Amino acid sequence: MGALAVELTPRDLADIDAVFPPGAAAGQRYGEAAMARVEL
Question: What distances in angstroms separate CA 12 from CA 1, 6, 16, 28, one per listed residue?
Fold first, then answer.
């Protein structure tokens, strides 16, 4: 559970945003064919 002790500085957060800007991971996780096999 060491991840709970991690503290990110404002600089850390800015660096993360520079590499993965907000919205960069938008969209479906799986394609339509794979989603058709998921019972939702």
Answer: 20, 11, 6, 27
- Which pair of structure tokens corresponds to residue 14? 């800015």
Q: Using CA of residue 29, residue 31, residue 37, residue 39, what is the dihedral sign?
A: positive
- Written as tens digits, the pLDDT of the chain (40 aa) is 889 999 999 999 999 999 988 888 888 888 888 888 887 6
| Token reading at 38 | 């998921």
DSSP 24: T
Token code pair at residue 9: 């500085």
Q: Tell me if 35 sits within 8 A of 28, measured CB to CB.
A: yes
What pTM did the predictor assign?
Answer: 0.52
